[in-house]
């Protein structure tokens, strides 16, 4: 129970269905004040109080589980390391992978619970052969199947997503009818462990500034930067270029070279890519054999694009039918067959 309206209504729905429910809030920082707080927070001290009030109203047991050490190692340190390497990670996806559906699930099973339920908007379908498939939620605007695309069959079989069939306004109305104070609470945004929302400032405090050149594709120096961690592929603002483009067109970050301390920029059309190379693939079910047609999504709120996917050992290749723009190494590509999630991989290269 994060302290938001979604997990509150998810818990209420499970209680109404007759499940034996226990509320769990995750303490993800040894110093809660160091993480984002207030109404837009996630797993903050205020959120824990909101979650407890909901649990009290539902008359269910409530606990706070301390995963601060695991979260710092698996999510925060990974976030910093990825930027150090010139990649662009998704910390919320990593939290789902390493904490909410790994460490929490493992502890829950060890304590005798049958499953972990969350307020994610995604649809789980259980089949006669015992398998479980993950699908997009009924509410396209809130669908969160992308950030669950790394879950395995073993994990999915122990998950419950009670909000799979409703839209967000209905969830808020259910919360209001139940008398939950979180009914009007705004959704959480930004990165929970960056208290002031200043990602560049956070990275600068954790990574040594290493100045270098901003260059064009031919290597001509156009400006200077204070550290490659301040940039991501597709970025346009904040480049502070001293040499304007010949035609006056804006330039975008095309690639980041942390070892050489270079940031390569160029016109928007050079951002277009049609091939994604993925590493560390995970599959929600049986790994597909041979090339297959599906759809690929590389942002949490992006549009899935038609593609041909091929797997080879611990890698995969996604060939997009139409060019994509602003794809950065470190992002996760989630693969769909219709509305069913097939698997995911970390993007190592886009070309």
UniProtKB/TrEMBL annotation:
State the superkingdom. Bacteria
Q: Which GO terms describe its molecular function?
A: ATP binding; tRNA binding; tRNA-uridine 2-sulfurtransferase activity
Which E.C. number(s) belong to this protein?
2.8.1.13
Query: Which GO BP terms sit in this record?
Result: tRNA wobble position uridine thiolation
Spell out the disulfide connections: 95-192
The reply to whether Plastid figures as a keyword in the UniProt entry is: no
This protein's major location comes to cytoplasm
Q: Where is the active site?
A: 95, 192
| Domain tRNA-specific 2-thiouridylase MnmA-like C-terminal, first and last residues per copy | 276-347
Residues holding ATP? 26, 119
NCBIfam families reported for this sequence:
PRK00143.1, trmU
Q: Which protein family is it in?
A: Belongs to the MnmA/TRMU family.
Its job: Catalyzes the 2-thiolation of uridine at the wobble position (U34) of tRNA, leading to the formation of s(2)U34.
Any idea what this protein is called? Answer: tRNA-specific 2-thiouridylase MnmA
Gene designation: mnmA
């Amino acid at each position: 129970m994060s302290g938001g309206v979604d997990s509150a209504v998810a818990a209420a729905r499970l209680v109404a269905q007759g499940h034996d429910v226990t509320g769990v809030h995750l303490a993800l920082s040894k110093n809660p004040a160091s993480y984002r707080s207030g109404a837009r927070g996630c797993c903050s001290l205020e959120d824990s109080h909101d979650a407890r009030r909901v649990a009290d109203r539902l008359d269910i047991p409530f606990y706070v589980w301390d995963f601060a050490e695991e979260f710092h190692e698996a999510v925060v340190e990974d976030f910093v390391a990825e930027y150090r390497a010139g990649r662009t990670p998704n910390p919320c996806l990593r939290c789902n992978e390493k904490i909410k559906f790994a460490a929490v699930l493992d502890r829950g099973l060890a304590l005798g619970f049958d499953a972990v339920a969350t307020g994610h908007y995604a649809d789980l379908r259980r089949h006669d052969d015992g398998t479980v498939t993950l699908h997009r939620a009924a509410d396209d605007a809130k669908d969160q199947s992308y950030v669950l695309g790394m879950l395995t069959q073993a994990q999915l079989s122990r998950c419950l997503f009670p909000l799979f069939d409703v839209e967000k306004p209905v969830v808020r109305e259910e919360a209001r009818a139940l008398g939950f104070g979180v009914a009007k609470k705004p959704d959480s945004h930004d990165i929970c462990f960056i208290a002031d929302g200043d990602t560049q400032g956070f990275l600068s405090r954790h990574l040594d500034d290493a100045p270098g050149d901003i260059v064009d594709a031919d290597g001509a120096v156009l400006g200077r930067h204070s550290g490659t961690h301040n940039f991501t592929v597709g970025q346009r603002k904040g480049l502070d270029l001293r040499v304007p483009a010949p035609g006056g067109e804006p330039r975008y970050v095309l690639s980041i070279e942390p070892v050489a301390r270079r940031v390569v920029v160029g016109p928007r059309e050079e951002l277009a890519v049609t091939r994604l190379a993925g590493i560390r693939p995970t599959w929600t079910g049986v790994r597909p054999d041979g090339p297959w047609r599906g759809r690929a999504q590389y942002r949490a709120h992006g549009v899935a694009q038609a593609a041909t996917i091929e797997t080879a050992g611990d890698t995969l290749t996604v060939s997009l039918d139409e060019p994509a723009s602003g794809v950065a190494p470190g992002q996760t590509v989630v693969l769909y067959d219709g509305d069913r999630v097939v698997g995911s991989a970390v993007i190592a290269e886009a070309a």
